[in-house]
Amino acid sequence: MTKTGIGYDLHRLAEGRKLIIGGIGLPFEKGSVGHSDGDVLSHCICDALLGAGGLGDIGTHFPNTDPKWKAASSLLFLEHTRDLLAARGLSILHVDAIVVTEKPKLGPHFPAMRAALARALGIAPKQINLKAKTNEGVDAIGRGEALAAYAVASIGEAIKPTANARERIRHVEKKARRTLRSSSRPRKRP
Ligand code: MG
Questions:
Q1: Angle, helix 110-121 to helix 40-52, in steps of 10 degrees
Q2: Minimal CB count within 10 Å: which of 19, 44, 79, 141?
Q3: C-alpha torsion sign, points 54, 101, 77, 66
Q4: Of 153, 160, 120, nearest to 44 (Cα)?
Q5: Phi, psi (5° rounding) for residue 153?
């Protein structure tokens, strides 16, 4: 069974901050404001994956009041999310995301971002698709005061036998063992 989740995030842009998107540092005069490294793309992918897994949201797992996550690399959030999913037998199938920012140009950095995100999620770069949009000069994003990202993630549910199925398997195996024992026993003459 395939499950999907949606993610959205927005960060303000300010001077004197590093711009980290998709785990990659980009040369730019502004950076995203946030408790962690402010990686808008990693955050929204994290939320999409948590949503697909029915595991709540990023704020529940990594509260911005926790000093542990201050200036932390958001790739750690993705690694932790990957482990949460894996522990439940869920595997990441595909992630599609859009980053909305007026500047800088993101396309040339997508291969490095996909590689970094894929490494953190334990999947192949081809399982991640990235797109870039501007906001056509409109609103805070258009004025270069903020950037936003959207993501959709699909995950697959591993086939786990239910309690009933496990009981049936045990029964069939027991029967098979009995049959094997009796067939190897010498037959009594009638
Ligand atoms: Mg965020």
A1: 40
A2: 79
A3: negative
A4: 153
A5: -125, 140
Q: Which is it for strands 24-26 and 19-21: parallel, antiparallel or unpaired?
A: antiparallel
What is the whole-number distance in angstroms between the Cα of residue 120 and the centre of ligand 1? 17
The answer to whether 11 touches 33, Cβ cutoff 8 Å, is: yes
Contact at 8 Å (CB) between 114 and 22? yes
The class level of CATH for 2-159 reads alpha beta
Sheet containing 90-100: order of strands: 30-32, 2-15, 146-157, 90-100, 128-133
Q: How far apart are CA 158 and CA 87, in angstroms?
A: 11
Question: In angstroms, what is the span from residue 149 Cα to ligand 1's centroid?
Answer: 9
Span 115-157, pLDDT tens digits: 999 999 999 999 999 999 999 999 999 999 999 999 999 999 8
User: How far apart are the CA of 10 and the centre of ligand 1, in A?
Assistant: 6
Domain boundaries, the chain: 2-159
